Structure of RNA polymerase sigma factor:
Amino acid sequence: MTDSGTHRAIDAVWRIESAAIIARVARMVRDVGLAEELAQDALVTALEQWPEKGVPDKPAAWLMTAAKNRALDHLRQRKLHQAKHEEFGHELEIEEALRQEHAVNAIDAALDDDIGDDLLRLVFTACHPVLSADARVALTLRLLGGLTTGEIARAFLVPEATIAQRIVRAKRTLSEARVPFEVPRKDALATRLSSVLDVLYLIFNEGYAATSGGDWMRPALCEEALRLGRIVAELVPDEPEVHGLVALMEIQASRAAARIGPGGEPVLLLEQNRSRWDQLLIRRGLAALERAAQHGGALGPYALQAAIAACHARARTAQETDWGRIAALYDALGQLAPSPVVALNRAVAIAMAYGLAAGLELVDALTAEPQLKAYHLLPSVRGDLLCKLGRHDEARTEFERAATLTHNVREQHLLLTRAHACAMDAKSLP
């Protein structure tokens, strides 16, 4: 194998296995920042040795063993210093193991939990509420997604130094707060799981509708959020909201190919070519939605949003969409998790189901909502309804205002195009 081929193999193995390796080492050293450093050391060794000696038969196992050996070296050195020996009770087992001839095997015996348990601990640690939302997203993509600092920076269109500082601060915060490397107990599980799901959906949404930049979507972020969501669903299979979120992401991701035109321009939902929707993802999404219901979570926030997405997925044409059911689902979502954004989406559903004027009345009532003051979709929706009602001048103004509020170039162009079309329609009126 050529050097470039070897490096590609290392990259591929690292992308797949890095989370498991970091999770296992974190279990040993009780520090995710240190665990990542030790795992990175193992990666560096692989980059040095594999091009010369060849890729081992079991590259993932090689990396795992190398990382654990570095963890053992670290623990040996720490044992020598003994400064904080008593603070790390779990090291007692490890110290005993170190006296044995086959230390690594002994450590494996001590750490006999399934690797999935370690991964779950890593998920909850990276998404700990002690961290800001931005820090949780960056750390999750780094530790669980295996993305480099540069890749995360490019995904969110921020300087690499910003992401690097964000990750460093996050690790320091976790260490200083002495956040335990564990799955929270039952009382705290729901809250902590909610934080995990929020992070995953935040990542997905940024990929699905980029807040800024020149691309309408960033599919890699959608794929990563979906991959991590599937992993979490396997780790906590009895938690219905996890399946609800996975269902939502699967169904929304199914439209990815149809959401972008040949020139990269956005294609709105009702104008999409539904033959381009990924039926496999839709089936997976509907199955996940069914699992959420089987676990008593049909009315959870994510499951309700997934049910709304499923209404669109089941409609063979835009005209067949069951807007009445969508409006009812938004009613339920608004009662469970009220927010101005949910109210705006409900207004759209009401407009489609019961008449444009009824929807516009609800949208107008939201114009005084402080939380929507800078939300570009409020004037965008209002412009759409006004346009359909034939009030073209007012619609143009709303589209132009929406364009000033969005930071996404593609969306800006779409809104200004619609504003121009409204202006042309207004001129053509007698």
User: Anything to note?
Assistant: The beta strands are 212-213, 407-408. Residues 26 and 32 are 5 Å apart (CA to CA).
